[in-house]
């Protein structure tokens, strides 16, 4: 069973990498968006300003959005700095903060995993930041993880 879960996570990782450089264009581009949905399997939702809607590939995501997966669903998200986040079934993740302005040294990535599984693959922010303890945070029910230049899998129950 562990091997099946590991293969599922590996598949989602490969799918995310294959879509890494597919940037939104034209009408899809949104200056306020911090990330975009790149991989979607099953029913996935976003809660924004108290309203919940079904996600589709290419949908923009914003600061303070809460993305959710249901049973037998998964979600892959690419942030503007090429950070990749994948959520497994029955997961809930809040996008707390994201700043990517290297010219002005404004770099931040902060998410909060309420439940479920998260695969994180760092992007450019992790390479450029001088303060990973402050600039890169993944909060779980058990504590906060500061990350830098890594690939990490987290499970929160």
- What is the beta-strand fraction? over 45%
Tally of contiguous helical segments: 3
Overall geometry comes to: globular
Decide which structural class fits the backbone.
alpha+beta
Radius of gyration: 15 Å
Unreliable runs, pLDDT <50, ≥5 residues? 1-27
Give, in order, the helices and strands: HEEEEEEEEEHHEEE
Number of strands: 12
> Roughly what percent helix?
10-25%
- Main beta sheet, described? 12 strands, mixed
Mean pLDDT: 83
- The CA-CA distance between the termini, in Å, is 18 Å
Task: Kindly describe this structure.
The chain has 157 residues and is α+β, with helices and mostly antiparallel strands. The protein contains three helices and twelve strands. Strands 1, 2, 3, 4, 5, 6, 7, 8, 9, 10, 11 and 12 form a twelve-stranded mixed β-sheet that branches. The protein is 17% helix and 46% strand.
Brief account:
This protein has 157 residues and is of the alpha+beta class. 17% of the residues lie in helices and 46% in strands.
Name a few traits of the molecule.
3 helices, 46% strand, alpha+beta, 12-stranded mixed β-sheet, 12 strands, 157 residues
């Amino acid at each position: 069973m562990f091997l099946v879960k590991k293969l599922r996570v590996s598949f989602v990782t490969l799918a995310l990498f294959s879509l890494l450089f597919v940037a939104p264009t034209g009408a899809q581009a949104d200056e306020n968006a911090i990330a975009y949905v790149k991989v979607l399997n099953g029913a996935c939702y976003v809660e924004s300003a108290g309203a919940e809607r079904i996600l589709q590939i290419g949908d923009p995501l914003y600061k303070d959005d809460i993305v959710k997966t249901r049973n037998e669903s998964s979600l892959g998200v690419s942030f503007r700095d090429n950070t990749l986040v994948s959520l497994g079934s029955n997961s809930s993740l809040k996008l707390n903060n994201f700043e990517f302005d290297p010219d002005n040294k404004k770099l931040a990535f902060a998410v909060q995993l309420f439940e479920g599984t998260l695969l994180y693959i760092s992007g450019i922010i992790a390479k450029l930041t001088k303060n990973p303890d402050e600039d890169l945070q993944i909060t779980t029910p058990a504590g906060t993880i500061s990350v830098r230049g890594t690939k990490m899998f987290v499970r929160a129950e």
